[in-house]
């Protein structure tokens, strides 16, 4: 068995995900008005269309497809597909809002050791899967060595640090 290295690449956090879009404008509308992301300045030196958004300590980089008509689009909501997941405070409020916005979704439940996690899965305008959950009640249990923590507490020091960085960036703009 190989020796485990703590952080071989000296990573600090997840910075962003990039998503190819059929329409950057439609995707901006979705990520801003459905998920609450905020558009931020994107380097002007890029020679292709796109947009950057930020929220919940992560960036979403939207990239305009060069061939939007031929982009594959998923219509079936499959919780086992690639997705990004966001924790929420009140699942009932999220589900009501999705219904009000007429966004199709799939509900799932996970139960582990008496802990129940509710999940809602839906697509962005291009079929990329989004999950909303109350996953912070599920403990993160390392396979060996460290003590168990909740999802919310694992990255608490990094979250606090990132909030300070964002506030400094907003002041500079």
Automatic annotation (TrEMBL):
Domain VOC: residue ranges: 13-135
Q: Which InterPro entries match?
A: Glyas_Bleomycin-R_OHBP_Dase, Glyas_Fos-R_dOase_dom, VOC_core
In this record, what's one Pfam family?
Answer: Glyoxalase
Q: Note the superkingdom of the native organism.
A: Eukaryota
PANTHER family, from UniProt? Answer: F18B13.24 PROTEIN (PTHR46142:SF3), PTHR46142
Could you tell me what this protein is called?
VOC domain-containing protein
Q: Supply the source organism for this entry.
A: Hevea brasiliensis (Para rubber tree)
């Amino acid at each position: 068995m190989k020796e485990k290295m703590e952080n071989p690449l000296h990573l600090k956090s997840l910075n962003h995900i990039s998503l190819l879009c059929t329409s950057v404008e439609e995707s901006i509308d979705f990520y801003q008005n459905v998920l609450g992301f905020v558009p931020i300045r994107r380097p002007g030196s890029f020679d292709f269309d796109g947009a950057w958004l930020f929220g919940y300590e992560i960036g979403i980089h939207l990239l305009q497809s060069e061939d939007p008509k031929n982009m594959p689009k998923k219509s079936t909501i499959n919780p086992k597909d690639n997705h990004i997941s966001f924790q929420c405070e009140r699942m009932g409020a999220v589900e009501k809002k999705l219904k009000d916005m007429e966004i199709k979704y799939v509900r799932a439940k996970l139960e582990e050791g008496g802990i129940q996690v509710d999940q809602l899965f839906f697509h962005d305008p291009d079929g990329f899967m989004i999950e909303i959950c109350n996953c912070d009640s599920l403990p993160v249990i390392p396979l060996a060595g460290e003590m168990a923590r909740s999802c919310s507490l694992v990255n608490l020091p990094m979250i606090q640090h990132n909030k300070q960085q964002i506030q400094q960036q907003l002041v500079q703009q």
